Amino acid sequence: RESFPVPSAICSGKREKCVIEKENNFKQPGERYRSWPPDRQERSLNRLVGGFSEPRITQELRTIWISYWIQCDKSLGQKLATRLNVKPSI
């Protein structure tokens, strides 16, 4: 029979029922992208396209990442999808 360590510290307190707000992990990167001047946005887009064009990146991974970028900024995700010839999943 396998035994597991039992912690010596006793946890005490009161449980409360509360609503936990859902995280939006895409809001901040989208706001950051939109705050950049158009030339910087274009440079960023070109770097992403270059990275996703690597032969070792599968079509499935491209599609997943484009769906993430669409959640950050719709126009960025659509531009990525167009340049990479990928149909967005969202």
Instruction: Indicate the proportion of strand residues.
Output: under 5%
Radius of gyration from the CA trace?
21 Å
Largest sheet: none
Could you give the order of the helices and strands?
Answer: HHHH
Structure annotation, total helices: 4
Arithmetic mean of pLDDT? 92
Mass-distribution shape? elongated
Structural category is: mainly alpha
- Poorly predicted tracts of residues: none
Beta strand count: 0
State the end-to-end distance.
49 Å
Helix content: 40-55%
Summarize the structure in words.
The structure is a single chain. The model has no long low-confidence stretch (mean pLDDT 92). This protein has helices spanning 27-35, 38-52, 59-72, 74-84. It has a domain at 26-84. The protein is mainly α. The longest helix has 15 residues, at 38-52. This is Catalase.
Q: What is the gist of this entry?
A:
This protein has helices spanning 27-35, 38-52, 59-72, 74-84.
Give the SSE map.
Elements (H helix, E strand, L loop, with lengths): L26 H9 L2 H15 L6 H14 L1 H11 L6
Highlighted features:
90 residues; mainly alpha; elongated; Catalase_immune_responsive; Catalase_sf; Catalase; heme binding
